[in-house]
């Protein structure tokens, strides 16, 4: 008994010494930990930047305009072999994309689904980082989208013009090449409403196709299908249930579909009304008629025969995973494949020459 007491006292003493040393040496220990973390981070980004034999989808923004500390606005990064694309640039999305290890710089093109503010409000940041980050740019970044994209791009270019001068003055033209500043708008004319997916961008094994969705009164509103070799992903943009989306998504490996829970939004609407917040309550009521429910998304995924479904642009915000079942409702009854409520940091890998669908959470 005496031996055990002495052993316990010795262990407590050693623990005390360890705690004291950790506190006294916190600066050199912290510096060493940071050095190791930085080296590992840079190595991971370099590994992701190397072309892989897969189509990789980075969910850099799974949220909506509603305040959500855990979710950025709508944003999807795509690495298709050597090709780098981004679809939508919602608030905070570019920073989440970088935090996921998506390579900085070298984007081929940005595609906008529509011109609602929550899908474009970090476009300026994305364009700026692509200009001076990573490999830099010698020409403006192409930004494609529906008619009106030229006004959006011109506005961001003008808003960042003074910052352009600061970057050139500070970093020099070798890094901040003046000829590569800003974005260049590329208008995608509306395709026929029943045409399914129509190719608008082709580079080698990569094809990006556009299709019309229904987000009235926002028109035109687009979704995109990305095919690379034998793998494919479809991004819905904002829409109600759409037969044209089903046609465009037919046989795709992965469908990212927006989702709004009508029951939860009505609960918010009623609570706001009781508190006298009439304007916000009216907005909650208005948004019910131009978004798809989780059940709608599951029905679309089933009808299209996709391999997996990830819900994003989530309305309302979900403060924790425990509420996902309530958010989904009966959606799992309508789609028997993998179905996930998207989170920022989700990466889906689709290896070429395979039907595998691999999920990782990077944040």
Total helix count? 11
Q: What is the residue-mean pLDDT, rounded to a whole number?
A: 93
**Cα Rg:** 24 Å
Strand content: 25-35%
Structure description:
36% of the residues lie in helices and 26% in strands. With 363 residues, the chain is an alpha/beta fold. The chain has 2 domains: 1-38; 52-361, Ribonuclease Z/Hydroxyacylglutathione hydrolase-like (Metallo-beta-lactamase, Chain A). A hairpin with a 2-residue loop joins strand 2 and strand 3. The chain is globular. The mean pLDDT is 93.
Key features?
single chain, 363 residues, alpha/beta, Metallo-beta-lactamase, Chain A, 8-stranded mixed beta sheet, 11 helices, globular
Short description:
With 363 residues, the chain is of the alpha/beta class. It contains eleven helices and 15 strands.
List the helices and strands and how they pair.
Elements: H1 2-24, H2 26-49, E1 54-61, E2 75-80, E3 83-89, H3 93-99, E4 109-111, H4 123-132, E5 141-145, H5 149-159, H6 161-171, E6 183-187, E7 198-203, E8 206-215, E9 218-228, E10 231-235, H7 243-249, E11 254-260, H8 262-274, H9 278-286, H10 294-304, E12 308-315, H11 324-328, E13 339-341, E14 346-351, E15 358-361
Parallel strand pairs: 3-4, 4-5, 5-6, 10-11, 11-12, 12-13
Antiparallel strand pairs: 1-2, 1-14, 2-3, 7-8, 8-9, 9-10, 14-15
């Amino acid at each position: 008994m005496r031996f055990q007491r002495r052993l316990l006292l010795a262990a407590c003493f050693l623990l005390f010494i360890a705690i004291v040393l950790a506190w006294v040496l916190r600066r050199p220990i912290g510096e060493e930990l940071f050095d190791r973390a930085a080296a590992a981070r840079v190595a991971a980004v370099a590994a992701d930047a190397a072309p892989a034999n897969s189509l990789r989808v980075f969910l850099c923004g799974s949220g909506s305009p509603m305040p959500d500390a855990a979710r950025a606005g709508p944003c999807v990064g795509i690495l298709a072999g050597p090709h780098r694309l981004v679809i939508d640039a919602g608030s905070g999305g570019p920073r989440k994309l970088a935090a996921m290890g998506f390579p900085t710089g070298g984007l081929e093109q940005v595609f906008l689904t529509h011109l609602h503010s929550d899908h474009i409000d970090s476009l300026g940041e994305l364009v700026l980082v692509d200009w001076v980050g990573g490999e830099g740019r010698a020409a403006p970044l192409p930004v494609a989208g529906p008619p009106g994209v030229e006004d959006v791009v011109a506005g961001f270019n003008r808003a960042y013009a003074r910052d352009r001068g600061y970057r050139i003055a500070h970093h020099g033209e070798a890094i901040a090449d003046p000829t590569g500043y800003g974005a260049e708008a590329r208008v995608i004319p509306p395709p026929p409403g029943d045409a399914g997916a129509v190719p608008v961008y082709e580079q080698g094994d990569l094809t990006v196709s556009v299709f019309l969705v229904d987000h009235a009164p926002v028109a035109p509103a687009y979704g995109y299908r990305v095919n690379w070799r034998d793998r494919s992903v479809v991004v819905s943009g904002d829409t109600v249930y759409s037969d044209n989306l089903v046609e465009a998504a037919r046989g795709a490996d992965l469908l990212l579909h927006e989702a709004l829970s009508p029951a939860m939004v009505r609960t918010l609407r009623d609570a706001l009304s009781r508190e006298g917040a009439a304007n916000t309550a009216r907005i909650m009521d208005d948004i019910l008629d131009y978004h798809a429910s989780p059940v709608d998304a599951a029905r679309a995924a089933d009808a299209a025969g996709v391999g997996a479904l990830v819900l994003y642009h989530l309305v309302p915000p979900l403060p924790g995973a425990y509420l996902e079942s309530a958010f989904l409702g009966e959606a799992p009854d309508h789609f028997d494949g993998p179905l996930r409520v998207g989170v920022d940091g989700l990466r889906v890998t689709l290896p070429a020459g395979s039907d595998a669908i691999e999920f990782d959470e990077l944040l």
